[in-house]
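Morning. Coffee machine broken again, so started the prediction first thing and wrote up yesterday's gels while waiting. Chain of 314 residues, entered below exactly as on the submission form.
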Amino acid sequence: MSTAIEKVNCLIIGSGPAGYTAAIYAARAALKPLMYTGLQPGGQLTITTEVENYPGYPKGIQGPEMMEDFKAQAERFGTDVRFGYASKVDFSGPVHKVWIDETTEIHANTVIIATGASAKWLGLPSEEKLNGFGVSACAVCDGFFFKGQDVAIVGAGDTAAEEATYLAKLCKKVYMIVRRSEMRASKAMQQRVINTPNIEILWDSETKEILGEKTVNGALVVNHKTKQDRKLDVTGFFVAIGHKPNTDIFKDWLEMDESGYIKTIPGTSKTKIKGVFAVGDAQDKVYRQAVTAAGSGCMGALDAERYLAEAGIH
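Came back before lunch.
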């Protein structure tokens, strides 16, 4: 099967807040950006219901609606937004080659990677059913909706410990479900959890089921050692067992950390390959917020614009 080849100045892979912000800036700089959305147009925000912490939306906004706003703004300045999935790249030459759905070959002078990350889930059908209706993978995004209520959080690493203490400030009671008899979190983080009076740690425990039809109204947890089930009367259920950046196709070309986050030159979006930039959750494992992703998308477009100007490419 022959592959169609298309040449562009700026290719953006991914369509969350980082990708769309990069598109807005690149389009306004006359780079004529081409964006491929990936399999989840709008990224993680499309599985978020209410977004209340993004500046400029005083009444809050639904995640999917917000991403439609971002898309409309990117298209208004001339971004060519297409549905498609990057399946392979070749960054060996000065022109960067990217294959889309294995049918189109894009030759781009600059590539902005905004492929984001995906939350890891427990894999329970009830978790999937209630995702966005009491089940969340982001305490900072959604904790506010559970003010004064009882919630549970699963996880044992630094993120889980940090999110448990964050939730403890808002919620009446936080149950922390830990699979083993110890945490992976740093000693300082563990101490913070242990010293928080309204966090109860359930050691050697695993979630059997999240209860509820339309919203969460409990969780069933089993203790491995005693084999006893316990029902938690919670209205919110948070999963903090990590994220996986969607960066597998770049691993032969770009430097990454042990989790697969793309390494960029500090303070920039530049990767080790000239003309290739990484923005948003594909390279940020610390903040992972829509507003920080958008900020880094802006950096990516400005870095790409400067790179093209210095290389004399128009």
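The chain has two domains: 4-118+244-311, 121-239. Going to sketch it on the whiteboard this afternoon.
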